[in-house]
Amino acid sequence: MIIPLFAALFSAVLAVPYEEYILAPDTRTLRPVLVYQVNGTVTDAEALTGDEPNGAVFDGPSGVTFDYGKNIAGLVYLTIGEISDPDQYISITFSESSLWISGERSDGTADSGLDEALYIRPSGPGVYTVPRERERGGFRYLSLAHNGTGSVEVKDVYTHFTPMPHYAEDQLRNYTGFFHCEDELINRVWYAGAYTNQMCTIDPRYGNALPFLRIINSGDNLTTPVPWFNNYTITNRTSALVDGAKRDRLVWAGDMAIAVPAIVVSYNDLISVQNSLDSLFALQNASTGQLPYAGQPFSELGIYSATYHLYTLIGVSDFYLYSGDYDYLTSLWSDWKRAMAFSLSFIDDSSLMNVTSPADWLRFGMGGHNIEANSILYYTLNAGLVLADALNDTTVVQNWTAAAAGIKAAANTLLWDASAGMYRDNETTTLHPQDGNSWAVVSNITDEPAKNLAISQGLRERWTPYGAPAIEAADAVSPFISGFEIQAHVRAGNATRGLELVRLQ
User: Fold this and answer.
1) Which CATH number fits domain 29-161: 2.60.120.260, 3.40.50.1010, 2.70.180.20, 3.60.15.10?
2) Where in the sequence is the signal peptide annotated (predicted)?
3) Helices (H), 354-448
């Protein structure tokens, strides 16, 4: 009895805790789990689902939409059997939502319009794939369409999963942290967040090339599909954390402020975080200290963002907090201080930073003595003081401490609206933004606990059936900024309210 008992205990130790919630695959070869819909004549379409596929025949104009059961990413492969003649084509399109399923185009990656389909013209039986620059960053539905008059036999269709390129196939589900509670929805959200970050960790040679940046705009009404390419090298490393699996597939420091803590507590992939931070510091202006709004190729526009500049500095602080990598912090410290000096140069006689660039997270009206930007600066100054202490650098303490104190006092004097129980966006408006009020609590720029409670209540009163609106962005429901609102509710002592927003949004 001892040996079987030992074997059972050993097996239990090896089991992955809560593995039923982990969405990461255990193989990089992913096949559809079911057929969503069929158009025209397709014989045995269901035979192409599951792990033991058999052939399906597309006869005349016909198509199939397959469902992978969740968002995935990668390169599509087709195994072709018999074809009626060499003039047969199979088109490939993608969609994250069933609302955008089409046999002619994919959901869009540009600021407007839909993406062009990919085409395979088989010359005979064999395995065919799309070019590597056409790997799709995020999709659940895969549509194959045949528009000819002949027939094509497709014997297999699968996607090679490309996220987490630096992980071995059998390591994708090897989480180092786990979460479980009595609320099944919260459990699923936690693990979905971890998987989303894995999806956003890519081979940096295949970032978005942005071929239509500043050519196609969000207000354009496009009627023809748009070409798309994922073949821009965003950093010369093995992996990179980007803002989105499908778009933009670029390094944005603001998104890292949300993603990095979640990565640390789930699968702890700090090397990808470091690679992305390095790509931003490589673009720092050596004379002014200015950091880019985003990584390459977006950085080529030369846009400055007061907030995203600071998010990069927060990224270094977070990295050191979670890694304890003293040498890495030391290597960036002079650049970090130069970047902080650049931000502090915008503080005027009011003791607040005067924001001169509208660039932020696509909200409207960024500028002036903005409460969001000043709260982030206040937060970053205090993070910098912690880093300076770790490095025993006393040269910055007096200046940064005074600047932080001035920002806090001025924000509460000039921007606090006692009648509303919230901060104004700046002195010239009555708008009480989601981003700035959330960040005010997160940064502790508030000067009394009652303000935290008032802000939490004020933000809660604005919720809609779809989530927390950002009135500074025309009531858009932003998962990005709502991430900071959730933190604000928790820091205000309303953890229950924070969880309510997680469930709602």
Assistant:
1) 2.60.120.260
2) 1-15
3) 371-391, 397-414, 434-443
